[in-house]
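Worked example (supplementary).
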Amino acid sequence: MSPPSPVGPKAAASQKTARAPSVTASDVARIAGVSAMTVSRAINNPDRVPAATLAKVQAAIAKTGYVPNLLAGGLRSNKSRLVAALIPTLVGPIFNETVQALTEALNQHGYQLILGQSGYAESHEDALLSAIIGRRPDGIVLTGVNHSADTHRRLRAAGIPVVETWDLTPTPIDMLVGFSHVAVAEAVCRRFHQAGRHRLAVISADDERAQRRSHAFVAAALNLGLAEPLVHLVPAPTTLGSGRAGLRSLLTQKPDLDGVFCSSDLLALGVLTETHALGVSVPGQLAVIGFGDLDFARDLHPALTTVRVDGSLIGREAARCIVERAEGRTVPKRVIDIGFKIIERASV
Amino acid sequence: MSPPSPVGPKAAASQKTARAPSVTASDVARIAGVSAMTVSRAINNPDRVPAATLAKVQAAIAKTGYVPNLLAGGLRSNKSRLVAALIPTLVGPIFNETVQALTEALNQHGYQLILGQSGYAESHEDALLSAIIGRRPDGIVLTGVNHSADTHRRLRAAGIPVVETWDLTPTPIDMLVGFSHVAVAEAVCRRFHQAGRHRLAVISADDERAQRRSHAFVAAALNLGLAEPLVHLVPAPTTLGSGRAGLRSLLTQKPDLDGVFCSSDLLALGVLTETHALGVSVPGQLAVIGFGDLDFARDLHPALTTVRVDGSLIGREAARCIVERAEGRTVPKRVIDIGFKIIERASV
DNA sequence: CTGAAAGCGCTAACAG
DNA sequence: CTGTTAGCGCTTTCAG
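After joint prediction of all chains, the assembly is encoded as:
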């Protein structure tokens, strides 16, 4: 079995290109006794081709192992069936679900996802953006709503549909699928208040969205007439370790703490771990609320009360927005607030 | 600011294509007073263009906001600068690091990653593979070493460089970056034996690689003259919850268990959680070894002894293999065994 | 060092 | 229902 020997290869050849010439639509067409155009139609609009012709083409495709060159198709039709997602990082399980759901939903519709990691900084986001735009994607999924003026400008100039995610703003670039971090913080604060907790604190990552939650939490506490919560910042991405250290530090400053809001479930796991090590009872002495509802939250000991955000839904909806726009169907609703839910478990 | 109004747009137009026509190399060329070819060279081989010309071209690029169409370039040059990664799932933190490192390393060299999720089953891996091959990627990164004969055949026919990862085999398709799951299991078993543990068990995911570790672990135990370890299988991807349930079930069958090997750190976390709930002392009554060395392992209470596999390194090396192959430099070593390490902490 | 011509493989647009 | 023609935007190749 000599490796790249497709049926009916280019005769002339000797084009000193990188790889062996692959089977083209014309090759298939010749074998099927039709034109290249019919091959294209048989693949993209099978219902506009009579069954008999379709069968011949499919036979030829099977025989040759033809796989259409999407680069060529995309160039001509100006539809790449490529969608780019820019996320800060894949480390830490927050965006996994979203990327996973995005990939799946997109693949189902014949689109592919290309991944770009911007880091939490905006450093080389520019180079990344060029590389992405160069692929002429049919859509771009962004994390968050704060992007440089330059990013805005270039995105608009490229005319590529954009979906911002994981946040809310009255002025989206284009479409948006997210939720309100302020509303989350307020709900969590009310929950502590309801449970009679008055000496609160926050352990929060230092990224933009987490900090927005922290600030809103502090504001909400003051609004409810509680003492100003302590805020302990840790570097993103969060770890169990920083949760442990965070609680230790907080307890030093305010030993009578009775409620702590963690900006991720991983931090909350760290807090819980530290309470075990310290012999602090949860929720007796200390109530804990996390953020994310990672799969382990329900099985912790005690089970973790946390904020559930449906990351999969964000991915699926973002995919839907872009695919619908690309197919030229109804322009979907611009802003989708997917909300959130506090999952009541044992840690409060 | 009218949206898509690049400087010097196509005059005639009315091509009823999806998007506004974007700036092309010819547009830039006209403005810079050179030919399109020189624009191309200024971008791809800046050193083969005199400084004066380069400056003119760069000015024109800046003025127009030109972003080269990589679809067109890829079509003509037969180099897409696209690399595809096929992973079972992004859920669960195992492959995150690898995908993260892959993305970063690739981006650094001007390549983009496209992501495909095969699921742990081989179900629609075929459709996925077509979609991927259709993009004419310069390389494909596969997870594991067991792929259908059809996958092998098509990959060979397409002539695309392939890197298999996260496993070892004497007969790779092309290149490979991984480690031996059998060696891992044997080392872990020896470690238990060394610690004087004789009544062992395994809690393992039911995916192929995890099961290979389980089997090797059982074999190694018998070899060392220990009783045959109990094996408790849980569905992949693993969760803290299945770890808890797993330990409970195991303890029912064999209350005097003194060592358990978990096929992921998440399972180990579950086991640890259950020991807290049950009042079983670790490592006193029960020694625990995990797999993965996730970031939380070191901060657990007690800190988790576990097998560290450098997922980032796998990603970086895979990227290197493909980029070097694509640039036509030295054909890199075919098989890279990155090994593993047992990280000694408090749970044994 | 620079440009002109040609064409990568596909599909839009228009006949038949 | 099917084929022909043209050309997407770039880069290879070859000649100045």
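Two points are worth noting when inspecting this output. The CA atoms of residues 217 and 223 of chain B lie 10 Å apart. DSSP finds twelve helices and twelve strands in chain B.
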